[in-house]
Amino acid sequence: MTKERGGGLIFLAAGIYGLVFSIGLPFGRWNEPGPAVFPVILSVLLCISGAVWVLRGKARGAAEKPASLNEALRRYATAAQIVGLTAVYIVVLEPLGYLLTSILYLFSLFLLVCRYKVWLAAVLALAFGAGSWFFFEKLLTTPLPKGVLPF
Fold it and tell me: Do 46 and 86 fall within a single domain?
């Protein structure tokens, strides 16, 4: 299976998943759209792009040779790191809180996945983590998990 077909299948699965769960929401009217409009449109676009990638990847995949196990592990190591870090982020979000967890998550991504220097990863993680917290908590007044920090 080519990368394009694999990515297309993931897009297609995410689109179908979103479509199934967003169909039950009210659509509203043309002048007052309901909460289902955006998720349904996004899900349909994901399904279409996923189907296109699967079909396009199938035509190119015929000429490719299968990869060895070592090549496959090296090829998907970065994706596995991202999935693992995201799983840890989800688990510790409530106990540690949004701000601390987001800063640690971004620092890990910048350091391990992007391979930035430690000081640059720390500065970017602090800037993006604190910036996103300020945007959602203060500007949009979205309640975020507080965790161990008082804010």
Answer: no
